[in-house]
Hints:
The protein has two helices and 21 strands. By secondary structure, it is mostly beta strands.
Amino acid sequence: MNPWRAINKSILLCCWLAFAISTRAGWLEQPINPLHLQSTNGFFRSDISGTLDLEGYYADQRPPGILFGNDPFFNPRLSLFLDVHLGNHIYIGVQGRADRGFDPKSMPNGDARADEYFLRYTPFDDARLNLEAGKFAMVFGNWVNRHDSWNNPLINAPLAYENITTISDGAAPASPAAFLARRGIPDKKANWLPIIWGPSYTSGGTAFGSVQRFDYALEIKNASISSRPAVWDATQLGWANPTVTGRLGFRPDESWNLGVSASGGAYLLPSAASTLPAGKNIGDYRQYTIGQDASYAWHHWQFWEEIIASRFEVPNVGNADTLAYYLEAKYKITTHLFASARWNQQFFGTVNDGAGHQVAWDNDAWRTDAALGWRWNQHLQTKIQYSYNHQRGALQQGEQLVAAQITAKF
Length: 410
């Protein structure tokens, strides 16, 4: 099948479904929520909500980032959210999903799992302190706050959150030459890591809050912010080598939100232990990451940016440094129509090649993303996106990406 014909059909299907749902889904506007329960005294409150995402993807070459599969594909996802309040101080949150894997088509035959489950205790009547334990999104940066399909102005994540590098977590490279040879190989997504893997729903505990114009968050988790979804659950990876992540934020006024973040922890999996140099263990090799973020809102405009620098301590190689940033904007054209764009770049430092030369350890890359979205009402949204990606060198991976998405919220 012609790939463009396949993606065109996906886009047309998305548009047709959006129109059909919008014209026949008056029940979505009903103020009564049949999935809401509350005790007579109001102490116990429970709500079930959700989103249904229908997505289509086409990449002209090997798919970029954390997209899996080599052909155009359809990617449905059902997300259900359970929110339970016990009085004013205890909150329980659960997010369950059924889809084709946490990352599109990573589980082509289907998957169902709990991506988040946590207990939050707020000891005071204000937001100065919250204590949370369970499995939940990381506190690093500002993209996590809008990473869900309803609030994300685009369909994919910024480059730093999904660009697979040549860093491996399951085995150490045998030598600098072996490590550098990976630059000419298509991404091995089952073996290699990005700087940050999406929202990083790792397991652990956090303390966060707001005091006047300042925000703070500090968490201890079982895995690094670059770790893959398979090890986010505490049943898959314990806390023998925890990662500590924190963010400090400042809101000078209602328009601005500024922040700095830092994270540090072991990134290698237990399976890598047998490949390490003699006398070394998993905890001797860490990922250190720092970041700066800002957001600004003005009239119909919204802007976001992040700068992220990370160092991986690579066995048999040394320190592998990388720097990534993005600039993102959203403009509300009409009540329903909005446009979004993002510019991304990632640069890689040098390592010794074993022969006395300093060589870049991966290929510098840049990507531009542009999307149009239509919010039909408070329960239905459609988006279409085009991305162009380029990396230094002869090897290119998914230079052009076209994606379409419908999100129904209930």
